[in-house]
Amino acid sequence: MESGFYTNDLERVVEADRAHIWHHLSPHKKYETQDPLVIVEGKGIHVWDARGRKFLDAVSGGVWTVNVGYGRVSIADAVRDQLVKLNYFAGSAGSIPGALFAEKLLTKMPGMSRVYYSNSGSEANEKVYKMVRQIAHKKYGGKKYKILFRDRDYHGTTITTLSTSGQPERAAQYGPLTPGFVEVPHCLEYRNQYPDAESYGIAAANAIEDVILREGPETVGAIVLEPVTAGGGVITPPEGYWPRVQEICKKYDILLHIDEVVCGLGRTGTWFGYQNYDIKPDFVTMAKGVASGYAAISCTVTTEEVFNMFKENPDDPMDYFRDISTFGGCTAGPAAGLENIRIIEEEGLLENVLTQGAYLMERLHGLMDKHQVVGDVRGKGLFCGAELVADRVTKEPAHESKVAAVVAECLAQGVIIGMTNRSLDGLNNTLCLSPAYIVTRGEIDVIVDAIDNALTKVFG
Ligand SMILES: Cc1ncc(COP(=O)(O)O)c(C=O)c1O
Asked: Where in the sequence is the domain holding 437, given as residue range(s)?
């Protein structure tokens, strides 16, 4: 291709994309015969592609990210002003937006007190894994090094975060993985593993204790959990689960790491997902919604107690967190994050998440009444899922090709929805919805009506 500036020649852009881009999470053979989707503009809750087609984006940028919507000039201005003043300095030094954003963020997280900046959710989680390992060496002679993770949860794409993937299809073929990570069972009541239990939530939490006892509590340093499992099928925790998990962590001196990469900054209608369940975490990680995708930023947040463990012995040259993330020193992220929080506060978006989230759930229950194929609907705030089944009684999952056909049919109607994607063999059968916090009741009707039509078309 000739060099030159062709930003308005969208045919050329698509051609360049097809020739040179390796798309994320995409089988590419199909692009030999069809154009890749190239998104060129966004405003509010809508995006436009290179062919001029308009879509209602019901998944906030595909992966629960653009929470305050597209085209936010005030965030762009805040980022621009900051870049002109100071774009970057390594995170070993401070910056104005870094300090002010941390201060603001922590007002939303009582009990937490330190913020460590990096670039992605995976990286934020790996920081915790490193901290836990270092604590194991400092306090427990290296013995309490194991980290538990849960079936169906996801914590990132690097080899080590994949080692904590409860989604086998994500990790398959990328081994050998990192040792020292141990899986505990999921807590999805619809796929009940404890039919005789009096309380499903307690039984699911007790299953964690069983793993700890099997491994030896003296070897387990931490557990990482999503507050509401996202890509593993939008799993809301059952009643009684979280208090029991917290109790178990306390009993065995196990640090609790909550992965808020999806739920963080308002997705469930509270600032953080864990705040729905009265949990006191030791670590909280966040990324996607921190700046709504206007800049790359992730945060690993800890308590002062954890932080203090990394400065106990000033005479020991190894006694601090020996970690750096080059782009964790970019100032655009915290500048965008500050404006993102201001928008959520001033526009009352948490309230809108709760109001519209309740309406979305009501409409999804309506779909369940109408379509036998909808086996279960789950959600918290504007974070909802509908699990499709071939048979309601046996709960045999709908085939993923049919679930994908529903997603494609919605796209053809101008609505972008998501689904569990190459996560769980035979269980990639949950439709995922996570519109921006600015969504209106009318837009929710458009989303659910599109799904309604698509279900009729695909399943009859
Ligand atoms: C719960 C959760 N944690 C971590 C990650 C990884 O984040 P990133 O893709 O920014 O590395 C994701 C990504 O989808 C996620 O859903």
From this structure: 37-68+348-459
In this structure, what are the phi and psi dihedrals at residue 340, rounded to the nearest 5 degrees?
-60, -45
| Same structural domain, 286 and 419 | no
- The answer as to whether 95 is a domain residue is yes
Secondary structure of residue 284 in the 3-state scheme:
strand
104 lies in some domain: yes
Neighbour-count burial of 49, counting CB atoms closer than 10 A to its CB (0-12 exposed, 13-18 middle, 19+ buried): middle
Ligand 1 binding pocket includes 151 (Cβ within 6 Å): no
Answer whether residue 1 is part of any domain.
no
Dist. CA 453 → ligand 1 center (Å): 31
| Burial per residue of 285-321, b for 16 or more beta-carbon CB atoms within 10 angstroms, e otherwise | bbbbbbbbbbbbbbbbbbbeebeeebeeeeeeeeeeb
Q: What is the mean pLDDT of the chain?
A: 96
Which residues make Cβ contacts (< 8 Å) with residue 13, sequence separation at least 6? 6, 7, 38, 40, 50
| Residue 371 and residue 415 in one domain | yes
144 lines ligand 1 (CB under 6 A): no
> Cβ(226) to ligand 1 under 6 A?
yes
Q: How far, CA to CA in Å, does 154 sit from each of 108, 121, 184, 221?
A: 24, 10, 13, 19
Residue of 64, 122, 167 with the most ligand 1 atoms within 8 Å of its CB, for mutation: 122
Q: What is the pLDDT of residues 225-275, one digit of tens each?
A: 999 999 999 999 999 999 999 999 999 999 999 999 999 999 999 999 999
Decide: 232 in ligand 1 pocket, CB within 6 A. no
Cα separation of 158 and 172, whole Å?
Answer: 13
53: number of Cβ within 10 Å: 13
